[in-house]
Amino acid sequence: MSDNARKDTPEQAEFRQHCREWLAQNRPDEPSVRLPQTALEIMTNEQLSYLQDWQKAAYQAGLVGCDYPVAVGGGGRTDCQRVANEEMVAARTPYFPNIIGLGMAAPTVFYHGQEALKERLLPRLFSGEDIWCQGFSEPGAGSDLASVQTFAEKQGDKWVINGHKVWTSLAHFAEWMILLLRTDKSHKYDGLSYFVVPIRSALGKGVTVRPLIKITGETGFNEVIFEGLEVDDGFRLDELGKGWQVAMTTLLHERGAGELQTPRAGGMKSKSTHANNTPNLIELARSCQRDGRPAAADPLLRDRIMQQVICEQGLNHNQRRSRVPALLDHPMRLALQNKLLASEIAQDTAALALEIEGAAASLYMGDENAPAGGQWPLCYMNSYGMTIAAGTSEVQRNILGERVLGLPKSK
Question: Is 254 a catalytic residue?
Fold first, then answer.
């Protein structure tokens, strides 16, 4: 029995058994196409269809949206999403494609949306039938999020939206967007409001989505142009001018302060995903040769690998601690710290993998001589996006210093 299972309540223990039995019988077949390393890099309809089918099956089995009320499409359980996540990670199932919907849009809509909107949007979000994206960053407003200039003007009973969003992951497949915009130009924070907007149905009718090609060659990022898009006031979340407060709900969940509704790790091997973690790093060190010997035979390299193992294990235990109220000296510290550390540990792990590979690290996917199928160079390049997303590492350190440790603001 795992450490997590030993602490289960009777409800959680029964649900864990259900998850294990269902996963044992319904683990999906290997995909016929290569899947990207995370949901944020999905590029093709074939990739999306495979992952949507998996998410829908898991939702119908009760493994998604577990802790949300039944009235909005959830399972009506208590602290059981974590149990489902743990069992899916253990079973090495694929990730869910609707990561932004599950991890950010769902809690934001649930806490700030009208009941009719929750009942309309959340079931299809949980099932993965409707993919969601996040409209926060703009060309002139990234780390300074409160400076967004996308503007909504009230015209009759409609809002007319004009503006430009960028770095919008999954917008090329999204039905819906969570959108932070400005409704009053005279106030920086109080002039912000928060909407959910249908963008796929508005393509060519006020919405334009343009792909942005990353250094990896993948096109998960996009820019989204709004030109006179009309939306009903019923798509607004919370009160007018409360957009900043609503956005904080989104960001807290994006940064890990709320339990994500999708597994954070794991994944099937071969044609599916490559988990950036130390077991795979150790496997790489054993398979790569240096001066006629496995790289793992180098004692200095083994020491560096063990340092990464220690960091990864420390992060895992911090995540466990974050679920014990008595161990939380500040409600945000561990959650915000984990986002910062997880992204940087992943980057350091990938960088070490490239050192292990040596000159072969220049070989990319598609080259039959590339170690681990060329996945580690891809991990390394993708890692920079995670140290930027949800606030850069520098912003995260400022938040921890100012809001958690009470240090004076830096000038």
Answer: yes
Q: Hey, CA dihedral for 338, 340, 346, 349, is it positive or negative?
A: negative
Q: Which residue in the list 138, 218, 254, 312 is annotated as catalytic?
A: 254
- Residue 299 CB neighbour total at 10 angstroms: 8
pLDDT of residue 280: 92
- The amino acid sitting at 41 is E
The H-or-E segment that residue 158 falls in is strand 158-166
Query: What's the pLDDT at 351?
Result: 95
101 shares its domain with 10: yes
Does the pLDDT value for residue 121 go beyond 70? yes
Q: What is the mean pLDDT of the chain?
A: 89
What residues make up the domain containing 325?
Answer: 278-404
Rounded to an integer, the average pLDDT of 336-349 is 88
Long-range Cβ pairs for the range 290-295 (8 Å, 24+) = 290/358, 295/356
Q: Are residues 123 and 154 in the same domain?
A: no
Do 173 and 48 meet the contact criterion of CB atoms below 8 Å apart? yes
Segment 262-275 shows an average pLDDT of: 40
Domain match, 147 and 220 both? yes
Strand partners, 387: none
